[in-house]
C-alpha cells in the first residue's frame, strides 16, 4: 500500500515522526490575557491610574460576580405626593424586567487612590427623581390622588458601603439623576440609624415651591448645560432630565391645562397627552414621554407649533403670548420637570468621583447595561470617611442596586475587598 500526502498538508509534528530523533520546535502562541472571576473583590496595584472606563487595566482585571438577592421589597414612599417610585417593588423579579442583573465588580489601587468598576444589566434608563408631573399617572402600588402637581418617578442608583467598625458604615451612593451628571457619587455615613449625606454641599437641591404637591420652583433657562470633568473632557447635560441652568418657572399651568384640553387634547393629543383623542379624531403625537418637552425652549416651540408646514394643529396654537406661556408650562408638566437641580458639591461630599457609560447629552430609552467607575482617595482626612490602607489587606462591604426606585433594592452583603500586595 502506498500512502501519499500533499506536501502543503504535512504538519511539523508528522515530520518529527518520520525523521528519527526530531524534536518539534513549534511554539504555540501565548494565550491572551483574560478577565477571570474571583471570590473576593481584588484590588491590584497599578502605577498608571485606571481613571477611564476604557483604561487597558480593566480589560484583563479579575472580577467579582455578584448574585443579588431581595433586600427590600413591597415598599412605597410614605410621604404624601410621591408616586411611581417603586420600580423594584417585587425585587429580583421586577428588576430589569426579571432578566439576570449580571452584577460584576473590579478594583485597582495606586499609591493614593482606590478605583472600583461596577457593571450590571438594566435595559431601561431611569434618570428622573421626584420629577414634577401635572395630572400624572396613578401608582399601581400606592393609593392617592395624582391630580395637579405630584412628584413622580425614581432613578437607577446603587449603594456601596464599607464597614468602618463600631456600627458605622461609609456609604457611596451613585445616582443617575442626582450625582452622575456632575461626575460624582454621593458620599454618606450610616451610624446605625440610616445613611445621611456627609458634610458640605450636596450635588442636588430640591426643586420645589413647598411640599411634594406644590409644583416646581424652576425649569430650564434654555442655555446649554456644560460640565467640565475632573479627568478631562466636557459633558453636555440633557435638559430633558437634568436641571443645571435654571430660571423661575413662569406660566399658569391651570390656565394652560384649560386651553390644552379645549384646543389640543380633545382634537388630537388626548386628554392625558397620550396621543389618543378618541375614534372621531386623528391620533396625534404623544406628549407625555418623559423629558420630551423639557428639551424645548419657548422660542423653538413657537416657531414649530405655529407653523402649519410642521404642525398640523397650527390653527389651534394660541396667538397670544400669555396663552402660549401657560400652554408651554402645561406641556412641560406632561414630560415631568426635574425634581432637583444640580450644583457642584463641596467638603466631604466631593470625595468620590464617578464616570459612567451613559450618554448624558441625550438620554436614550434603551440601554444595554451600566458601567460605572468610582474613584476615591485612600485617605480623605474626613472623619466621616473610611481610611483605606492596602497594608490592612481586607475590608468588608455591602452592595445594593435599584431600578427606577427610591426604597426597594436587591443586593449582596458581607463581600470582601482584598488589596493585593504590589507585584502580585
Task: Explain the overall architecture.
The chain has 424 residues and is α+β, with helices and mostly antiparallel strands. The protein has helices at 12-18, 56-60, 253-269, 298-305, 321-335, and strands at residues 41-45, 64-66, 69-72, 82-83, 103-109, 113-120, 131-134, 149-152, 157-165, 168-175, 186-190, 195-197, 204-206, 218-220, 226-228, 234-236, 246-248, 340-342, 352-356, 370-377, 394-402, 409-419. The strands form five sheets. Strands 1, 2, 3, 5, 6, 9, 10, 11, 12, 19, 20, 21 and 22 form a 13-stranded mixed β-sheet that branches. A three-stranded mixed β-sheet has the order 4-8-7. Helix 3 crosses helix 5 (321-335). Mean pLDDT is 90; it is low at 1-32.
Amino acid at each position: 500500500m502506498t500512502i501519499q500526502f500533499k506536501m502543503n498538508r504535512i504538519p511539523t509534528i508528522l515530520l518529527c515522526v518520520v525523521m528519527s530523533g526530531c524534536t518539534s520546535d513549534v511554539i504555540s502562541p501565548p494565550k491572551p490575557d483574560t478577565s477571570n472571576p474571583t471570590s473576593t473583590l481584588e484590588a491590584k496595584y497599578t502605577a498608571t491610574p485606571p481613571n477611564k472606563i476604557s483604561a487597558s487595566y480593566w480589560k484583563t482585571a479579575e472580577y467579582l460576580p455578584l448574585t443579588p438577592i431581595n433586600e427590600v421589597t413591597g415598599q412605597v414612599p410614605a410621604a404624601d405626593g410621591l408616586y411611581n417610585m417603586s420600580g423594584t417593588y417585587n425585587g429580583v423579579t421586577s428588576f430589569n424586567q426579571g432578566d439576570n442583573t449580571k452584577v460584576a465588580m473590579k478594583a485597582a489601587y495606586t499609591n493614593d487612590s482606590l478605583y472600583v468598576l461596577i457593571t450590571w444589566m438594566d435595559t431601561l434608563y431611569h434618570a428622573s427623581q421626584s420629577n414634577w408631573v401635572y395630572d400624572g399617572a396613578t401608582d399601581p402600588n400606592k393609593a392617592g390622588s395624582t391630580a395637579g402637581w405630584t412628584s413622580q418617578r425614581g432613578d437607577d442608583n446603587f449603594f456601596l458601603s464599607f464597614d468602618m467598625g463600631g456600627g458605622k458604615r461609609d456609604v457611596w451612593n451613585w445616582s443617575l439623576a442626582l450625582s452622575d451628571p456632575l461626575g460624582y457619587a454621593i458620599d454618606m455615613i450610616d451610624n446605625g440609624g440610616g445613611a445621611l449625606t456627609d458634610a458640605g454641599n450636596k450635588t442636588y437641591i430640591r426643586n420645589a415651591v413647598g411640599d411634594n404637591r406644590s409644583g416646581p420652583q424652576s425649569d430650564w433657562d434654555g442655555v446649554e448645560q456644560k460640565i467640565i470633568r475632573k479627568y478631562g473632557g466636557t459633558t453636555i447635560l440633557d435638559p430633558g432630565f437634568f436641571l443645571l441652568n435654571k430660571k423661575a418657572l413662569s406660566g399658569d399651568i391651570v390656565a394652560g391645562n384649560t386651553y390644552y384640553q379645549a384646543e389640543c387634547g380633545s382634537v388630537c393629543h388626548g386628554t392625558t397627552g397620550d396621543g389618543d383623542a378618541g375614534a372621531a379624531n386623528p391620533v396625534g403625537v404623544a406628549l407625555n414621554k418623559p423629558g420630551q418637552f423639557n428639551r424645548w425652549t419657548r422660542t423653538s416651540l413657537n416657531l414649530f407649533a405655529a407653523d402649519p408646514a410642521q404642525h398640523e394643529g397650527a390653527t389651534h396654537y394660541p396667538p397670544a403670548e400669555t396663552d402660549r406661556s401657560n400652554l408651554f408650562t402645561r406641556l412641560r408638566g406632561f414630560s415631568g420637570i426635574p425634581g432637583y437641580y444640580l450644583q457642584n458639591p463641596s467638603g466631604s461630599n466631593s470625595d468620590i468621583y464617578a464616570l459612567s457609560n451613559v450618554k448624558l447629552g441625550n438620554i436614550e430609552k434603551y440601554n444595554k447595561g451600566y458601567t460605572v467607575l468610582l474613584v476615591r482617595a485612600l485617605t480623605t482626612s474626613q472623619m466621616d470617611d473610611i481610611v483605606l490602607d492596602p497594608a490592612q489587606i481586607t475590608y468588608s462591604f455591602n452592595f445594593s442596586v435599584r431600578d427606577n426606585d427610591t426604597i426597594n433594592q436587591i443586593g449582596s452583603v458581607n463581600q470582601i475587598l482584598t488589596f493585593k500586595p504590589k507585584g502580585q
